[in-house]
Amino acid sequence: MGIHIVAQLADNFAYLISDDSARQCAVVDCAEADKVLAEAKRLGLSLVAVLTTHWHPDHSGGNEDLARMVPNLRIYGARAEGGRIPALTDPVSDGDRIRIGSLEARVIGIPAHTNGHVAYYFASLGAVFTGDTLFVGGCGRVFEGGAATMVESLGKLAALPDDTRVYCGHEYTEKNLRFALTLEPNNAALKAKYEKVRALRAQGKWTVPSTIGEEKLTNPFLRTASPELIATLKKQDPSLGTSAVEIFARARELKDRF
Protein backbone atom coordinates (compact mmCIF):
# COMPACT_ATOMS: atom_id res chain seq x y z
CA MET A 1 0.00 0.00 0.00
CA GLY A 2 1.33 3.41 -0.84
CA ILE A 3 0.76 7.03 -1.83
CA HIS A 4 2.47 8.36 -4.94
CA ILE A 5 2.60 12.05 -5.85
CA VAL A 6 1.93 12.97 -9.49
CA ALA A 7 2.70 16.59 -10.37
CA GLN A 8 -0.01 18.29 -12.42
CA LEU A 9 -0.14 21.61 -14.28
CA ALA A 10 2.01 24.38 -12.75
CA ASP A 11 1.66 23.64 -9.03
CA ASN A 12 -1.08 21.02 -8.58
CA PHE A 13 -0.81 17.58 -7.06
CA ALA A 14 -2.64 14.41 -7.98
CA TYR A 15 -2.11 11.34 -5.80
CA LEU A 16 -2.15 7.66 -6.66
CA ILE A 17 -3.32 5.54 -3.72
CA SER A 18 -2.38 1.92 -4.20
CA ASP A 19 -3.42 -1.43 -2.84
CA ASP A 20 -0.28 -3.25 -3.93
CA SER A 21 -1.64 -6.72 -3.11
CA ALA A 22 -4.47 -6.22 -5.60
CA ARG A 23 -2.28 -4.17 -7.97
CA GLN A 24 -5.02 -1.55 -8.04
CA CYS A 25 -4.98 2.19 -7.45
CA ALA A 26 -7.19 5.25 -7.29
CA VAL A 27 -6.22 8.80 -8.19
CA VAL A 28 -7.18 11.86 -6.19
CA ASP A 29 -7.81 14.98 -8.32
CA CYS A 30 -6.70 14.34 -11.87
CA ALA A 31 -6.04 17.38 -14.08
CA GLU A 32 -3.78 15.65 -16.64
CA ALA A 33 -4.78 12.09 -17.45
CA ASP A 34 -1.65 11.16 -19.41
CA LYS A 35 0.66 11.80 -16.46
CA VAL A 36 -1.56 9.85 -14.10
CA LEU A 37 -1.81 6.84 -16.41
CA ALA A 38 1.92 6.89 -17.09
CA GLU A 39 2.68 6.75 -13.35
CA ALA A 40 0.16 3.96 -12.78
CA LYS A 41 1.77 1.98 -15.61
CA ARG A 42 5.26 2.61 -14.21
CA LEU A 43 4.12 1.24 -10.86
CA GLY A 44 2.41 -1.76 -12.44
CA LEU A 45 -1.01 -0.73 -11.13
CA SER A 46 -4.49 -0.78 -12.65
CA LEU A 47 -6.43 2.45 -12.18
CA VAL A 48 -9.92 1.62 -10.91
CA ALA A 49 -11.24 4.87 -9.40
CA VAL A 50 -11.01 8.64 -9.34
CA LEU A 51 -11.59 10.50 -6.06
CA THR A 52 -12.45 14.10 -6.89
CA THR A 53 -12.34 16.61 -4.03
CA HIS A 54 -14.16 19.42 -5.86
CA TRP A 55 -15.32 20.55 -9.28
CA HIS A 56 -12.63 23.10 -10.22
CA PRO A 57 -11.00 22.10 -13.53
CA ASP A 58 -7.47 21.94 -12.11
CA HIS A 59 -8.77 19.10 -9.91
CA SER A 60 -11.22 17.41 -12.26
CA GLY A 61 -10.16 18.35 -15.77
CA GLY A 62 -8.68 14.93 -16.49
CA ASN A 63 -11.80 12.97 -15.54
CA GLU A 64 -13.32 12.82 -19.04
CA ASP A 65 -10.06 11.62 -20.59
CA LEU A 66 -9.64 8.94 -17.93
CA ALA A 67 -13.23 7.80 -18.40
CA ARG A 68 -12.61 7.38 -22.13
CA MET A 69 -9.34 5.52 -21.71
CA VAL A 70 -10.05 3.25 -18.71
CA PRO A 71 -12.93 0.77 -18.97
CA ASN A 72 -15.30 0.50 -15.98
CA LEU A 73 -13.61 3.38 -14.16
CA ARG A 74 -15.52 4.65 -11.12
CA ILE A 75 -15.44 8.41 -10.63
CA TYR A 76 -16.42 9.64 -7.18
CA GLY A 77 -17.27 13.19 -6.21
CA ALA A 78 -19.65 15.15 -4.05
CA ARG A 79 -23.36 15.02 -4.70
CA ALA A 80 -23.46 18.59 -3.35
CA GLU A 81 -21.39 19.87 -6.28
CA GLY A 82 -24.61 19.84 -8.28
CA GLY A 83 -23.44 17.86 -11.29
CA ARG A 84 -20.35 19.98 -11.95
CA ILE A 85 -17.84 17.12 -11.60
CA PRO A 86 -17.02 15.72 -15.06
CA ALA A 87 -17.81 12.06 -15.83
CA LEU A 88 -19.18 11.46 -12.33
CA THR A 89 -20.43 7.89 -11.80
CA ASP A 90 -20.70 7.70 -8.00
CA PRO A 91 -22.00 10.75 -6.10
CA VAL A 92 -20.95 10.75 -2.44
CA SER A 93 -21.87 12.64 0.72
CA ASP A 94 -20.31 13.29 4.11
CA GLY A 95 -19.79 10.01 5.98
CA ASP A 96 -19.91 7.72 2.95
CA ARG A 97 -17.30 4.97 2.60
CA ILE A 98 -15.37 4.05 -0.54
CA ARG A 99 -13.33 0.90 -1.08
CA ILE A 100 -10.24 0.62 -3.29
CA GLY A 101 -9.21 -3.02 -3.07
CA SER A 102 -8.66 -3.61 0.63
CA LEU A 103 -8.41 0.10 1.40
CA GLU A 104 -11.33 2.11 2.75
CA ALA A 105 -11.80 5.88 2.62
CA ARG A 106 -14.26 7.92 4.61
CA VAL A 107 -15.73 10.94 2.85
CA ILE A 108 -15.58 14.13 4.92
CA GLY A 109 -17.74 17.02 3.76
CA ILE A 110 -15.67 20.23 3.98
CA PRO A 111 -17.54 22.92 2.02
CA ALA A 112 -16.71 26.64 1.65
CA HIS A 113 -14.08 26.66 -1.12
CA THR A 114 -16.88 25.04 -3.13
CA ASN A 115 -20.33 24.01 -1.95
CA GLY A 116 -19.60 20.30 -2.20
CA HIS A 117 -15.89 20.08 -1.43
CA VAL A 118 -14.94 16.79 0.24
CA ALA A 119 -11.83 15.21 1.72
CA TYR A 120 -10.97 11.51 1.61
CA TYR A 121 -9.61 10.05 4.85
CA PHE A 122 -7.85 6.67 4.80
CA ALA A 123 -7.48 5.64 8.44
CA SER A 124 -5.40 2.56 7.58
CA LEU A 125 -2.91 4.77 5.71
CA GLY A 126 -3.01 7.55 8.28
CA ALA A 127 -3.65 10.02 5.47
CA VAL A 128 -6.21 12.61 4.43
CA PHE A 129 -6.54 14.21 0.99
CA THR A 130 -7.79 17.75 1.51
CA GLY A 131 -7.90 19.30 -1.98
CA ASP A 132 -8.11 23.07 -1.69
CA THR A 133 -9.66 23.34 1.79
CA LEU A 134 -6.60 22.72 3.97
CA PHE A 135 -3.17 23.52 2.53
CA VAL A 136 0.17 23.12 4.24
CA GLY A 137 0.32 26.36 6.19
CA GLY A 138 -2.91 27.75 4.77
CA CYS A 139 -6.42 27.19 3.50
CA GLY A 140 -8.36 27.76 0.30
CA ARG A 141 -10.22 30.89 -0.62
CA VAL A 142 -13.82 31.00 0.51
CA PHE A 143 -15.54 31.06 -2.88
CA GLU A 144 -18.91 29.39 -2.31
CA GLY A 145 -19.45 29.55 1.45
CA GLY A 146 -18.93 31.90 4.36
CA ALA A 147 -16.23 32.15 6.99
CA ALA A 148 -18.29 30.18 9.50
CA THR A 149 -18.62 27.30 7.04
CA MET A 150 -14.88 27.21 6.42
CA VAL A 151 -14.13 27.30 10.15
CA GLU A 152 -16.44 24.32 10.62
CA SER A 153 -14.84 22.45 7.71
CA LEU A 154 -11.32 23.06 8.98
CA GLY A 155 -12.45 21.91 12.42
CA LYS A 156 -13.46 18.54 11.00
CA LEU A 157 -9.97 18.07 9.61
CA ALA A 158 -8.27 19.32 12.78
CA ALA A 159 -10.21 16.67 14.72
CA LEU A 160 -8.38 13.86 12.90
CA PRO A 161 -5.47 12.20 14.75
CA ASP A 162 -2.41 14.46 14.98
CA ASP A 163 -0.21 11.98 13.10
CA THR A 164 -2.55 11.97 10.08
CA ARG A 165 -0.56 12.97 7.00
CA VAL A 166 -2.06 15.86 5.03
CA TYR A 167 -1.94 15.70 1.23
CA CYS A 168 -3.26 18.92 -0.26
CA GLY A 169 -3.97 20.17 -3.76
CA HIS A 170 -1.19 22.71 -4.42
CA GLU A 171 2.42 23.58 -3.67
CA TYR A 172 1.66 26.88 -1.93
CA THR A 173 3.54 26.22 1.30
CA GLU A 174 6.38 28.72 1.24
CA LYS A 175 4.12 31.71 0.59
CA ASN A 176 1.56 30.41 3.09
CA LEU A 177 4.14 30.24 5.86
CA ARG A 178 5.59 33.62 4.94
CA PHE A 179 2.12 35.06 5.49
CA ALA A 180 1.67 33.09 8.72
CA LEU A 181 4.81 34.70 10.12
CA THR A 182 3.26 38.15 9.70
CA LEU A 183 0.60 37.06 12.19
CA GLU A 184 2.73 35.00 14.60
CA PRO A 185 6.35 36.15 14.25
CA ASN A 186 7.28 34.59 17.60
CA ASN A 187 5.88 31.12 16.89
CA ALA A 188 8.97 28.91 17.19
CA ALA A 189 7.38 25.91 15.47
CA LEU A 190 6.29 28.12 12.58
CA LYS A 191 9.73 29.68 12.17
CA ALA A 192 11.37 26.24 12.16
CA LYS A 193 8.91 24.90 9.59
CA TYR A 194 9.40 27.92 7.34
CA GLU A 195 13.17 27.39 7.29
CA LYS A 196 12.69 23.70 6.54
CA VAL A 197 10.31 24.51 3.70
CA ARG A 198 12.66 27.10 2.23
CA ALA A 199 15.42 24.50 2.17
CA LEU A 200 13.18 21.92 0.50
CA ARG A 201 12.04 24.35 -2.18
CA ALA A 202 15.62 25.49 -2.82
CA GLN A 203 16.37 21.83 -3.62
CA GLY A 204 13.36 21.59 -5.92
CA LYS A 205 11.54 19.28 -3.49
CA TRP A 206 7.85 19.25 -2.58
CA THR A 207 6.58 20.16 0.87
CA VAL A 208 3.79 17.56 1.13
CA PRO A 209 2.82 15.80 3.22
CA SER A 210 2.44 17.70 6.45
CA THR A 211 0.54 16.31 9.43
CA ILE A 212 -2.54 17.49 11.28
CA GLY A 213 -0.38 17.98 14.37
CA GLU A 214 2.08 20.19 12.50
CA GLU A 215 -0.75 22.22 11.00
CA LYS A 216 -2.27 22.86 14.41
CA LEU A 217 1.08 24.31 15.49
CA THR A 218 1.82 26.40 12.40
CA ASN A 219 -1.25 27.05 10.23
CA PRO A 220 -2.89 30.38 11.12
CA PHE A 221 -6.31 29.20 9.95
CA LEU A 222 -6.23 26.44 12.57
CA ARG A 223 -4.86 28.84 15.19
CA THR A 224 -7.70 31.31 15.62
CA ALA A 225 -7.33 30.99 19.42
CA SER A 226 -3.62 31.96 19.40
CA PRO A 227 -3.10 34.97 21.70
CA GLU A 228 -0.30 36.32 19.49
CA LEU A 229 -2.34 35.96 16.30
CA ILE A 230 -5.36 37.65 17.90
CA ALA A 231 -3.20 40.46 19.28
CA THR A 232 -1.65 41.06 15.85
CA LEU A 233 -5.05 41.38 14.22
CA LYS A 234 -6.53 43.52 17.01
CA LYS A 235 -3.55 45.86 16.80
CA GLN A 236 -4.61 46.55 13.22
CA ASP A 237 -8.30 46.83 14.16
CA PRO A 238 -9.10 47.26 17.87
CA SER A 239 -12.81 46.78 17.16
CA LEU A 240 -12.27 43.24 15.89
CA GLY A 241 -14.01 40.55 17.91
CA THR A 242 -12.21 37.44 19.12
CA SER A 243 -14.53 34.66 18.00
CA ALA A 244 -12.98 31.99 15.79
CA VAL A 245 -15.10 33.09 12.83
CA GLU A 246 -14.17 36.78 13.16
CA ILE A 247 -10.46 36.02 13.55
CA PHE A 248 -10.54 33.57 10.65
CA ALA A 249 -12.38 36.03 8.39
CA ARG A 250 -9.91 38.84 9.03
CA ALA A 251 -6.89 36.54 8.55
CA ARG A 252 -8.38 35.20 5.30
CA GLU A 253 -9.06 38.74 4.09
CA LEU A 254 -5.43 39.65 4.69
CA LYS A 255 -4.20 36.48 2.98
CA ASP A 256 -6.33 37.25 -0.07
CA ARG A 257 -4.33 40.46 -0.50
CA PHE A 258 -0.92 39.06 0.50
Index terms:
258 residues; 6-stranded mixed beta sheet; Metallo-beta-lactamase, Chain A; 14 strands; alpha/beta; 9 helices
Describe this structure in words.
This protein is α/β, with parallel strands linked by helices and 258 residues long. The chain has one domain (2-256): Ribonuclease Z/Hydroxyacylglutathione hydrolase-like (Metallo-beta-lactamase, Chain A, 4-Layer Sandwich), CATH 3.60.15.10. It contains nine helices and 14 strands. A six-stranded mixed β-sheet has the order 1-2-3-4-5-6, covered by helices on one side. A six-stranded mixed β-sheet has the order 7-8-9-10-13-14. Strand 11 and strand 12 (138-139) form a beta hairpin. Helix 5 runs antiparallel to helix 6. The N and C termini lie far apart (39 Å). The model has no long low-confidence stretch (mean pLDDT 97).
Write the layout of secondary structure elements.
Elements: E1 2-8, E2 12-19, E3 24-28, H1 33-43, E4 46-51, H2 57-60, H3 63-69, E5 74-78, E6 90-92, E7 97-100, E8 103-109, E9 118-122, E10 127-131, E11 134-135, E12 138-139, H4 147-158, E13 165-168, H5 173-183, H6 188-202, E14 210-211, H7 212-218, H8 227-236, H9 244-256
Parallel strand pairs: 3-4, 4-5, 5-6, 10-13
Antiparallel strand pairs: 1-2, 2-3, 7-8, 8-9, 9-10, 11-12, 13-14
